[in-house]
Amino acid sequence: xxxxxxxxxxxxxxxxxxxxxxxxxxxxxxxxxxxxxxxxxxxxxxxxxxxxxxxxxxxxxxxxxxxxxxxxxxxxxxxxxxxxxxxxxxxxxxxxxxxxxxxxxxxxxxxxxxxxxxxxxxxxxxxxx
Length: 129
Description:
By secondary structure, the chain is mainly alpha-helical. It has one domain (38-128). It is built from five helices and two strands, in the order ααββααα. Strand 1 (54-55) and strand 2 form a beta hairpin. Helix 2 (39-51) packs across helix 4 (95-112) and helix 4 (95-112) packs antiparallel against helix 5. The longest helix is centred in the C-terminal third of the chain and has 18 residues, at 95-112.
């Protein structure tokens, strides 16, 4: 038996429960000075994170490619470091201020959402408080 076939058969034995697993995860990161990013773009990035959206990696634009409201709340914001909030566009320097900032973004999204989506966003806003 070839080394490859043996490795594949051992892998199948390990994962025989058919639970989906990531085979690899890639993140493209690109940064730019915060001062050169428009405030509206920062709010859009915050909204994308709140919705669990898939976005582009360009620092000067936020192309959202997938944003189902059902994925809203994927990130556990209460456990994030203050630096993480800065990286998603929050101006706040403390976790509490950043959560308040994100709650404002959620309230803005909620006002434009369909009723069933607005309910989900409202629940997420309550979790942030």
